[in-house]
Amino acid sequence: MTTKEIISVEAEPYAFDFSPRTCALLLIDMQRDFLEPGGFGEMLGNDVSQLRRTIAPNKRLLTKWRLRAWPVIHTREGHRPDLSDLPPAKKIRGRSKTCIGDVGPMGRILVRGEAGHDIISELYPLPSEPVIDKPGKGAFFATDLHAILQNQGIKQLIVTGVTTEVCVNTTIREANDRGYDCLVPADCVGSYFPEFQKMGLEMIKAQGGIFGWVSDSEKILAALD
Ligand code: C5J
Question: Does the residue 53 lie in any domain?
Answer without folding.
Answer: yes
